[in-house]
Amino acid sequence: MNETPRWLEAEEKAAWDSFIRMQETLIGRLSRLLQADSGMSASDYIVLVSLTGTSEGRMRLLELANRVNWEKSRMSHQVRRMAKRGLVAREECPDDARGAFVVATPAGYKAIEDAAPLHVEHVRRLFVDALTPNQLSTFARLSQRVSDHMEKQPD
């Protein structure tokens, strides 16, 4: 069963190439700025934003991995590195001996509180300010449409 590939048309390829270039450049620049401003990696930041965004500053490890769309093993390694630096702690789950909570520590809260204002300013300067409000709304709808479409597709 050797199907002919559905090669991208010129306009499709241009859209794809432009998206990849923008995404790689934006994420790379934001990651470098975050590291320079706060000493925090983008992975540290996403974990702390997720944890501190909850009312208790804690989540089950698997729930946290699912929220940021990472494999459980990647999250475990990230949490281990962050715990060594005192940004998070692991707590056993009293209801499930195999489960664990990841908890933002006071140092983790301080790190995210210090990093977030500068990071948001960089996001605004590099992304939000490049678009009109109407373009931003369209971009959000298109991004959600692609995300919804991917959810329906097999891996």
UniProtKB/TrEMBL annotation:
Name of protein: MarR family transcriptional regulator
Residue ranges annotated for the HTH marR-type domain, each copy included: 1-148
SMART domains cross-referenced by the UniProt entry: HTH_MARR (SM00347)
Source organism per UniProt: Streptomonospora nanhaiensis
InterPro entries: HTH_MarR-typ, MarR/SlyA-like, WH-like_DNA-bd_sf, WH_DNA-bd_sf
Domain of life: Bacteria
